[in-house]
Amino acid sequence: MDKKEIIQITNAFLVEEFEADPEKITPDANLKATLDLDSLDYIDLVVVIENNFGFKVNPEDFQGISTFQDFYEYVATRIKQKQLV
Prior knowledge:
The structure is a single chain. The protein is mainly alpha-helical. Helix content is 62%, strand content 0%. The two termini are 16 Å apart.
């Protein structure tokens, strides 16, 4: 799975699950502010990631994620790690 495909899949489920405005989902946009995430929404986000990409997410992984670009990089890295195992 290449980065473009990761971005397309990610943006599609963010729009569907979090009713996000696709126009506001840009690489430099703040993930939490754009999606208006609270602590329960992060749990939903973890479930959606695990269901769409097939890897386990640790809650502490989100500490370094502030923008959508950070999020895409995180998903791409975890997919690569999963493929190496």
